[in-house]
Amino acid sequence: MLNTPSIIEFTKILGSLVKTKNNYSTVISLSHQMEFHGIRSDIFTITILINCYCHIGQMTCAFSLLGKILKMGYQLDVVTVNTLIKGLCLNNEVQKALYFHDDLITKGFQLNHVSYGTLINGLCKMGHTTPALQLLTRLEKGSVKPDVMMYNTIIDSMCKDKLVDDACQLFSEMVIKGISPTVVTYSALIYGFCIVNKLKEAIVLLNEMVSKNINPDVYTFNILIDAFCKEGKMKEAKSMLNIMMKHGMKPDVVTYNTLMDGFCLRNEVSKAKYIFNTMVQRGMMPNVKSYSIMINGFCKSKMVDEAINLFEEMHFKNMFPDTVTYSTLIDGLCKSGRISYAWELVDEMRDRGQPPNAITYNSFLHTLCRNHHLDEAIALVKSIKDHGIMPTLYTYSILIDGLCKGGRLNDALKVFKDLLAKGYNLNVVIYNTMICGLCNEGLFDEALDLLSKMEDKGCFPDAVTFEIMICALFESGENDKAEKLVREVIARGLL
Q1: Residues 6+ apart with CB under 8 A from 457
Q2: What is the C-alpha separation between 12 and 165, in angstroms, rounded?
Q3: Dihedrals φ, ψ of 427, to 5°?
Q4: CB 98 within 8 A of CB 68
Q5: How far apart are CA 167 and CA 493, in angstroms?
Q6: Is residue 345 within 8 Å of residue 334, measured between CB atoms?
Q7: For 269-291, what is each residue's pLDDT tens digit?
Q8: Nearest-CA neighbor of 48 among 75, 10, 74?
Q9: How far does the chain reach from its first CA to its final CA, in angstroms?
């Protein structure tokens, strides 16, 4: 008769399954079979199971196993506790994680750096940066002192919220306390400066890093290259690429994608294609985003055949386009009048499990409105709603604009009023479109009435709103009303 392996051997197997394949459901099923065959779990097996339940979002089951650990007479250990805290944070139950933390502290349980790092990370990911900072401050008075990872997490969160001055202050406090910043710290701050358009300060930080022998990594350089590309400063972006390579770092697919996107934004699609080819020549495999960027660039430059060739190349390489890729090409096809091919791609999207979304259909809607097929446009919006796809405000903006320009003002007003009745927070673009439509029909009093009601609905008129009204009033000889609006524009500081 064969001897049954010990619980230690089973635990090793279950642990390996989780680490290598993340087979959480399989591990749970195997553990049930072990129990059925009378193999008694130990604390290590149960902790593995708790981890599995946490990852599949079954926190009630995870906590029931905590009770089982205590009933079996085992002492609660920090690894199990950290697993539960991480599980709660993973499942967006950070408040419950904090309650669990408070309960443990009350009972005299000692948490460690991993526990607090997990809590701070969870708070920051939920956008609760202030409570994370408060928790960090509390740690200063306890036995577990804040470490660089905790500071990095909060600094990163502050920077993503554009609270760069606060992040710099926390950075200074960290340094004063003798905690040395890492490449992660500097990268977070550099990102913060870049998104608030302070590229000079970002470069100063890069130089400071190097002077302190903290080597920037590919991620750091990609942040700066991306910032230069977004500002259209391709010369500076390429210069940053050269500095990166001088530091012995090879550009990755993100670097190349960023440069390609930068050139496409400047309508320099041939230079973007050169970067694409360079990436391939250097042995770097383009990803779906690489192709999407190039397809978008070609479509924007009205080089739809080149976009189609790249799309077909993806199929040849067994690379599956995503919804962004499909929607981008469909938009290019619609704008170039190849509607039947665009509809074929919609069918292909569905067949490949990439269902079209509102952005996809907006391209068809725009084409229908532009060609004054307004009944078909109205039917399309109804059809996508019937298929469970929620139209965006941009969808309605296209439809209202098309109806106004196609002489169907009453239909446009019906759509507009229906949106208001349903509680939509309409943006200034839709209001401007409707006001323009009213003005074109000479309905100035109605347009002025709508202008006066905008702010009551939480939408503030911009310079374009007033420009539409003022020009229309002057053109129709309503000079007094026009001049009154001009004075209002000046008073609002919109000139």
Answers
A1: 420, 425, 426
A2: 48
A3: -95, 175
A4: no
A5: 32
A6: no
A7: 999 999 999 999 999 999 999 99
A8: 10
A9: 92
Tell me the average pLDDT across 71-93: 90
pLDDT tens by residue, 131-190: 999 999 999 888 899 999 999 999 999 999 999 999 999 999 999 999 999 999 999 999
Mean pLDDT of the chain: 91
Both tokens assigned to 248: 């012995």
Closest CA to 190 of 149, 213, 212, 222: 222
Residue type, 205: L
Closest-CA residue to 382 (of 371, 372, 393, 390): 390
Q: How far apart are CA 415 and CA 389, in angstroms?
A: 17
- The DSSP code sequence of 94-139 is HHHHHHHHHHHHHTT----HHHHHHHHHHHHHTT-HHHHHHHHHHH
Asked if 384 and 376 touch (Cβ cutoff 8 Å), the reply is no
Residue 2: pLDDT band (50, 70, 90) is very low
**Burial letters for 33-68: b for 16+ Cβ neighbours within 10 Å, e otherwise?**
ebeeeeeebebbbbbbbbbbbbbeebbeebbebbee
| This model's pTM is above 0.70 | yes
As given in the structure block, the two tokens for residue 160 are 């993503």
What CA–CA distance (Å, rounded) separates 70 from 192? Answer: 46
